[in-house]
Amino acid sequence: MAPKNEAKASDAAAPSAEPRLEVKKPKKKKVLLMGKSGSGKSSMRSIIFSNYIARDTRRLGATIDIDLSHVKFLGNLTLNLWDCGGQEAFMENYLSQQRVHVFSNVGVLIYVFDIESRDVDRDLATYVSILSALLQYSPAARIYILVHKMDLVVPASREAVYDERAEEILLFERTSFLAVSSWTSAEATRNPTEDRLERMSNIMKHFKQSISRFTGTPRNAEQFTRMEHKAGTRFSLFILKFTTNTYLMVVLPPGEGRFNAAMLNCQIAIEHFKFLDAPGGLPLSV
């Protein structure tokens, strides 16, 4: 009987099972709600997720730093919502000391612009800085832009609010610099210089001749890829090489932020029009 008891004792001494490795749950992706102070971020959040009605949002105070909340949505979905205060001091802190903490592991950025803002250039500069931080730490994040308080704009004027930022867009043939396509805002139609397209064509021809004379390049050669002109408080314009055979000119109201944003958007658009240079590409005009 002794051997049997020894066997039982040895069985009891043996480890019952290997220790289990704890699997760490992946961090929840953040939903960042950002925008200038007073743009209406917290009001929108309260109306959508807390069943507030519009008049109840008047008693909401300004968001201090970051307001974290976990919102249940569509049954079993939980949103990790970060409502970020929009005061300048907080924005600077997000982009410097809290940069990694705020912009890492972001799934969605919802950025709110206030249609009533009087400092559009600064708003755009802040937005560009936030995009840079997001690209650095969460390059796969989706971005949604909301233009808030459009209901405060007179309905007949809403289209004008969208269009007033650009006055004129022109597409020129590269060699002759003749306009082959154009778009003009309502504001630009009041321009008293009706022959401005012909004047612009002549100016650019003289400019290209001067380049040819001083550099020794043929007149029909590609002599520049970009030109900028800022006429103080009157207007700004830039000319970009658009396709192999065309140049794009954009005329804007003055403002550095607006100018840089338009320039960047046009440079991005160039990539989508490369098919025009390919054999069998669509004609520029019909």
UniProtKB/TrEMBL annotation:
One of its GO terms (cellular component) is Gtr1-Gtr2 GTPase complex. The keyword NAD does not apply. The keyword ATP-binding does not apply. GO terms for biological process: cellular response to starvation; negative regulation of autophagy; positive regulation of TORC1 signaling. GO terms for molecular function: GTP binding; GTPase activity. Residues 1-27 are annotated as: Disordered. Keywords: GTP-binding, Nucleotide-binding. InterPro entries: Gtr1_RagA, P-loop_NTPase. Pfam families: Gtr1_RagA. Belongs to the GTR/RAG GTP-binding protein family. GTPase involved in activation of the TORC1 signaling pathway, which promotes growth and represses autophagy in nutrient-rich conditions. Component of the GSE complex. This is GTP-binding protein.
